[in-house]
Known about the structure:
Elements: H1 3-28, H2 33-56, H3 61-90, H4 95-114, E1 121-132, E2 135-144, H5 148-172, H6 175-200, H7 210-259, E3 263-267, E4 273-276, H8 278-284, H9 288-291, H10 302-318, E5 322-329, E6 335-346, E7 352-361, H11 363-386, E8 388-394, E9 399-402, H12 404-410, H13 420-424, H14 432-445, E10 449-456, E11 462-473, E12 479-488, H15 490-505, E13 509-513, E14 519-522, H16 524-530, H17 534-537, H18 554-563, E15 568-570, E16 576-579, E17 585-597, E18 600-609, H19 611-638, H20 640-667, H21 672-700, E19 708-710, H22 712-722, H23 724-729, E20 733-737, E21 745-747, H24 749-766, E22 776-783, E23 788-794, H25 823-833, E24 837-842, E25 848-855
Parallel strand pairs: 20-22
Antiparallel strand pairs: 1-2, 3-4, 3-7, 5-6, 6-7, 8-9, 8-12, 10-11, 11-12, 13-14, 13-18, 15-17, 16-17, 17-18, 19-21, 22-23, 23-25, 24-25
Helix pairs in contact: 1-2, 1-7, 2-3, 2-7, 3-4, 3-5, 4-5, 5-6, 6-7, 19-24, 20-21, 24-25
Amino acid sequence: MNWVTIIWAMGGGACLTLALMHLVVWCKDRAARANLVFAVMATAVAVLAALELAMMRAETPGQFGIAVRWLHVPAWVIVASLVGFVRLYLKAGRRWLAWTVVAMRTLSLILNFIFSPNINYREIIALRHISFLGESVSVAVGVPNPWMLVAQLSLLLLVIFVTDATITAWRRGERRKALMVGGSIVLFVMAGTAEGVVIAWGIISMPVSVSLFYQGIVVAMAYELSYDVLRAATLTRQLQASEAGLRESEERFRVVADSSPVLIWMSGLDKLCTFFNKVWLEFTGRTVEQEMGNGWAEGVHPDDFQSCLKTYVEAFDAREPFVMQYRLRRHDGEYRWISDTGVPRYDAQRNFAGYIGSCVDVTELISKEEALRDSEERMSLAADAAGLIVWTWDVRRDEVWLSDKDRAFFGFSQREKLNADRVRSIVHSEDRQFVRQLVENSLRTREEIEAEYRVVLPDGKVRWVTRRGRVEFDGNGEPTCERGVLLDITERKQAEEKFRLATEASPSGIVLVNDRGRIVLVNTHVEKLFGYEREELVGETVDVLVPERFAGQHPAHREQVLAAPTARAMGAGRELFGRRKDGSEFPVEIGLNPIQTPEGTLVLAAVVDISARKLAEAEALQHREEVGHLSRVAVMGEMAASIAHELNQPLSGIISNASAGQRFIDRGDVDLRELRELLADIVADGRRAGDVIRGLQSMVKKGSPTRQRVNLNELVMNVVRMIGPNAAHHSCDVQTLLDPDLPPIEADPIQLQQVLINLVINAFDAMCNTSLSRRKVVIATERNGDGAVCMSVRDYGTGIPEEARERLFDHFFTTKAEGLGMGLGIVRSIVESHAGTVAAENVDGGGARFHLTLPAGATA
């Protein structure tokens, strides 16, 4: 039995039978182009089977080569048909790839007829007969042609094309089509290609049977097409069964239409109305006969009639749905706004039968819309005045609303549909992920959106905006929409950048603190001063920079500054210290400057490290004390006569009394009472001499000033007593004019003695050329009107030269030939250290007067 002949003949016959059946289907329905393509492909598979049979029956290499050459013609038809069938039936597949497959197969067909004997073999040397299915068949022994790879490449591209189309259909949900058509094509084409390759390259020895694989594709495609035909037949029977019920449903439609709460109408092919439901007639108060045809138009408001008629006619001619609004007269004569929705209607054969429409009274809705429109207009004007961009994002539909003006600002066209991704595309690329995460967090946590980021305008300019928005949720907790505003803050950002640059350039440490006491900004100098990194300070309370011993007082000081925000120096009259990261402290000066912002009051603190200045001040103080000590020693030298006189009196008394006591003892006549009196006088004189010596010691010893309550009048009298001998030596009279009600002052008595002695000695020197009758120094004290205490020293000498008045109190300036110029400079330093003032003037009648003013009871 010749099984090869039987199998190949039956396969080819089956393909031709299926091709004829589907050709008939196409002839009946020319739209069924997939059936036509299938018929062509099945015919080509039958021809392919016949040529394969001819190859197996070939007697010579020449006959075999001719059969192989013509075998490529039906193969080209099969490949082209498969591409076309996939495009038509699966409605998928990339167009460019389809044309590439056909072009590659066409190239292989051309090369097949160029090469001899064909594209498969460069040369067929002989035929070898083998047993196949119990029958002797011919197989070629020859040299493979490498150009055969072009044909094989076209089949590989076909597999790729069909795979891509299959995936697309699968994703659309057409999984049965994808498996039956796409899967079978990929499977059998790959199997047939593999067989052809191993046979042509001599890997195995067997006859070519590619047609059997393509017959598998034919069966799968025929099954799928037949399934569609059967399904269409079923639907046809169902449609026929429903036509009987359609007539019955028309009556039910009337009942339903009359029961409907809306106004319903129908029109025929002539555009004239043929039906109005009961609700329409009750609304207009007219009969159906009055409304039929064009009668209904009598109730339309005259101002709306032309636009209403135009909309209806244009939609009717185009067979398109329409929606229009117009005013229709109600039975009470009032015109009411109605929304009329019309759609074309078709009969069972899909033939156009006219229009059907429904109308709803929307008067109240339009009134609300007008009110809403007015409100939106006012809001738009307010937003424009404030420079705000208002937007709304419908989360469910992913649609974003922006005004026409704002669309133009961002470069969106007026008709462009905006969604979240499109709007996000204008965000600066470096900020886009941040904005996306911001919105996702808001949708998840329901928190309001508040952020600042950059956008890129159509001209390429980058602008900073601040965004505030709120997401709304439905009853199920699902987000519905987000509403918000944008504000252009580019100028503010530029100002902030300038402020930051100015802050960084400041030689002082700059700390910006908000009204909650938290650090908002620091400059590099603060990092150097306190030893912190910038990231460690921002967000922390400013107390981290305050020594722990002052931490309890700082909140009260901060509240005081915020209560009356004015520029000021912090801690006036007190020493301030900062605390470094390592806990060490250093002296600082702080200037505070409040800044009013929309977020509240910020306080800008300028911090200066005054450690070096404090050290210099300590050294200067030490130098002043040294100079003061030298000055006092010099004064003591000038007062040597007075000192000698002061000591001479008590010492003379001691010697006199001691001598008298010796005489009493030598005489042997000792009166104990008189001896006791002599000893008491000796003790008193010794104590007086000791007081003088201690006064001298206090004048010349080194040490820090000691403040205490001082009676200025008593101090004046002590000085007058001390300089008495000097006055006598200069033939000067010292007079005092003391205020008996003078309040005490807080001062260092030794320093004030030094001041007064300097001024009195200078007065003595100034009167060296004055006549003896005019040599007089007047020391006066009085209480000033503002509570201060005044002391003056007046002489009757030559007065102060005019050229020396401006430099009179400068150190190392003197009008004396032998002077050092230290005295009056020290006077001024001491008085100013007591928060006082000193001045000099010439007095009418000759001489000069020096004024000292000191605060009563004040501590300098």
